[in-house]
Design a protein that fits this description.
By secondary structure, the protein is mainly α. About 55% of the residues lie in helices and about 0% in strands. The protein is flat. The relative contact order is 0.08.
């Protein structure tokens, strides 16, 4: 029973960390750009991003770009 409680706790903490329970805290207005001319709403936009089809999103990450540059140098 203790393992089940720990598993549930870890799962809940992971969900909160990734913003599944609180998307308004994980997706701030500075973390994404909207190409449409409309006011951004992070909570609504979060769910639109989750339901996006292939090719509708472009994901960029400075960390990922840095790692790719570093790998090409070797």
């Amino acid at each position: 029973m203790k393992e089940l409680k720990e598993t549930i706790l870890i799962t809940m903490m992971s969900m909160m960390f990734w913003g599944i329970l609180y998307p308004q805290f994980s997706l701030t207005e500075n973390s994404y750009l909207c190409l449409e001319n409309r006011e951004r709403n992070p909570e609504q936009d979060f769910f639109q991003i989750l339901g996006a089809k292939k090719g509708e999103l472009v994901v960029k990450s400075k960390l990922w770009e840095w790692l790719e540059e570093d790998n090409h140098k070797e």
